[in-house]
Structures are given as C-alpha cells and as structure tokens.
Design a protein that fits this description.
Structural class: alpha/beta
CATH class of the largest domain: Alpha Beta
Number of domains: 2
CATH superfamily of the largest domain: Alkaline Phosphatase, subunit A
Number of helices: 15
C-alpha cells in the first residue's frame, strides 16, 4: 500500500462577497479534487487542538500523526533543524523574519507593510542576515539564514517567556503594541531597532529600492521554542516516509522524524514555486520504495496572508493539477494506494492570518472507493464525517496496516 497526503497550506477559507458568497476553494476550478471526492470519504477535521495557536507547525504535526500537545516545542526549533543548526540544552530558537516596515522615525509608530519583504530571494536574504550576524551577533546570540524571508536566531541559555507576535498577524498595523514583551522584550526590541539602521544602508536593499522592490527594512522575532524531541516516523508507524516541501518548517519536521526530504530546485513556497518539480519528486519517492509521502504546498497560505483572492484561487487550481497528476501516476503502479487531500488550517482572505476552525478533508482508498456524492470544498465537507483531531487522518490512512 502506498500513502500520499497532499497538503494545501491555508487552502480553506470563508465565503467572500466578491466571489458571490463562495470560498476560494468553492470558486476555483478543481475538477480533479471533485472527481476524487466523489469516490472518497469527505468531511471536516479539527487539526488544531483547543487552546493551541493555529500555526502551520501545530497543524502539520497533527496531520502527520504527531499529537502537538505531546510533541510541539515551538516553531523555530523545527526550522532550525532544517537549516542544520545543532541546538544545545538550554538553547532557544526564535524565528526571525526579514520584514518591511513603514518609514516613521519612531519604531513604535511604524506599520507592518510586508511580513516577507516582497518574498525576498534566498540569495539576497542570506547577505542581509550575514550582515546582521556580523553587527548584532555574539557568543550568546547567533543569526542563521534560511529560505527567502524565513531565518533563525539562537539564544544560548534563552527563554520562551517572551511575548512575541507573528508578523503576518499584524499586516498593516502599527507595531508598537506588538513589539516583544517579557524577559527578553527590551533586548529583542533593541535588536529590531538596530537592524533597521544596518539594513537601511545595505547594498542589497539599495538595489531592491532601485528596482522598485520592497526592501527588507528590519528583522522581526516570533515562534520561539526549545529543542524538539520527535519519535522517528518509521518507529511510530512502521513506514518509510518522505516530505516534499519548500519551507524549513516542514523540512525540519522531516529531519526530526528521520523522513526523507528531497531538495527540489526552484521550490520557493510561493505561487511561482516549481510545481512540476515537486510532483516529480513525489513520483520518484513512491517509485523508489517510499511508502508514505507528504506533499506540502505553501502557496495558498502565502496568498491568504497577502489578501490576494486571485492568486489564492490560482494556487488552489495548481494544487488541483497536482492531485490529478499524482492520482493518474498512482493508478499506473502495481500497489494499492490511499490519497488524503486537506489544508493544515484556514488562512481566510478577510483576516489575512490563520484561524482554528476545522478544515475539509478527503481520503481516497483505491481498494474501497465509495460513492460520496460530494465535491471537495468547505460546504460539502460539512455533510460528511467529522474527525475531532488531526491525528485521525493518519489513523484512517493506515487502519488496514494496523488491522
């Protein structure tokens, strides 16, 4: 049996007036997902446990079968794993975004214009983070570059008792009340302020401004946590697993669970990612003896954070294309197979950030196709079977293995 999970990050949404009361998922042309849904178990699943924040870290762990109430230790430590940072006992990892703030003189009066600095390329971002490390890093604080705008600060003998706000939660807002608070609050706020002085004069930013691109004006801290302790995927489920993703969070989860994670050239985590390359990587994994592949597409989430309806629809339609490609590929193999399709959480256009409501899922079993009479969207999913936690996706997929 082969298992494939196709995860459209943030794909779920809420009805929009400009779409005639439909969600982007309802409005998009999704013939492949609808065809598969008609033969699948369809319903809603709660991927974020009550009381936990609806981050991609929590939700993806849940869908992968790892109860976040047991395994979650913060977002940035998972990303640090992917970057290759070896965390020592007492170390705290802090997600460090390169962001674009408005140009008011007073830091507290500035607004969060862009949590991604115009989706700054990795090569340019690396130069900026290297300068930040040179100017602001020391024996206790070290900055490490990641992918695009996503980077990492390691605090030796650090603390998780600092109140930090994700930058995508405050798009367009004045940052004063969202600056770091608590044990490291003043120090991290000062680092944000000083980063503005360093980045303002950096050649990379001068070039971006000349090209009418958004500069990375400051660093922004969030997602702090301690070194994760994850069971290996094979020891937990008895399956050889792989994760295909562009983002450090998912690659870090793969590393922490000892799942294979291929490097796909041109995979960016945006609408312009190498969609074909990621699909081809899945095919190679399944053909080469991998039992379970988790294919993660970040683009719908990015478009939701940006409030871009047209691009979110386009990203959903690309996910639909991938579903069709991989369904046909799996039909050509000799193994029976199951496919699950779902988001990790909603990222509604109207609020530009993650929410906690249950998300639509479907699970197709090539040995037991059913007649559901349903399409794949939020409305039809309400007519189906409700799962109370995300780990039930893995339980449903592997129930025959465990019988």
């Amino acid at each position: 049996m082969k298992y494939l999970v196709i995860l459209g990050d943030g794909m779920a949404d809420r009805p929009l007036k400009e779409l005639g009361g439909k969600t982007p998922l309802e409005y998009a042309a999704t013939p492949n997902m609808d065809k598969l849904a008609a033969m699948s178990t369809v319903g809603l699943v709660r991927t974020v446990p009550e009381g936990m924040k609806p981050g991609s870290d929590v939700a993806n762990l849940s869908v992968l079968g790892y109860d976040p109430r047991k395994y979650y230790s913060g977002r940035s430590p998972l990303e640090a794993l992917s970057i290759g940072v070896i965390m020592k006992p007492g170390d705290v990892a802090v997600r460090t975004n390169l962001v674009t703030l408005s140009d008011e003189p007073d830091l507290a009066e500035k607004r969060m214009l862009d949590y991604s600095s115009g989706e700054i390329p990795t090569e340019e971002a690396r130069e900026l983070i290297e300068s930040i490390q040179e100017e602001l890093g020391n024996e206790r604080l070290r900055f490490y570059s990641g992918v695009s705008y996503r980077h990492c600060l390691i605090e030796a003998n650090g603390t998780t008792e600092t109140e930090l706000t994700p930058p995508h939660d405050i798009s367009g807002k004045r940052i004063g009340e969202y600056l770091p608070k608590g044990k490291m609050g003043e120090e991290l706020t000062e680092l944000i302020r000083r980063s503005g002085e360093i980045l303002k004069k950096h050649p990379v930013n001068r070039k971006r401004v000349a090209e009418n691109k958004r500069p990375a004006t400051h660093v922004w801290f969030w997602g702090a946590g301690t070194r994760p302790q994850l069971d290996t995927f094979f020891s937990k489920f008895g399956l050889k697993g792989a994760v295909v993703s562009a983002v450090d969070l998912l690659k870090g989860i793969a590393k922490g669970t000892e799942m294979y994670s291929p490097c796909v050239k041109g995979a960016t985590g945006t609408l312009s990612t190498n969609w074909q390359g990621k699909v081809d990587a899945v095919k190679e994994c399944l053909a080469d003896g991998i039992d379970y592949v988790y294919l993660h597409f970040e683009a719908p989430d990015e478009c939701g954070h940006q409030g871009n309806v047209a691009d979110k629809i386009a990203s959903i339609e690309k996910v639909d294309w991938a579903v069709g490609e991989l369904y046909e590929f799996l039909k050509g193999l000799t193994d029976a197979f199951k496919i699950a399709v779902l988001p990790d959480h909603p990222t509604p256009i109207e609020c530009k950030t993650h929410t906690s409501e249950p998300v639509p899922y479907m699970i197709y079993d090539s040995l037991k196709p059913i007649v559901s009479g349903l399409k794949y969207n939020e409305k039809d999913a309400q007519k189906g079977y409700f799962m109370d936690n995300g780990q039930m996706i893995m339980e449903k997929l592997t129930e025959d293995e465990n019988a």
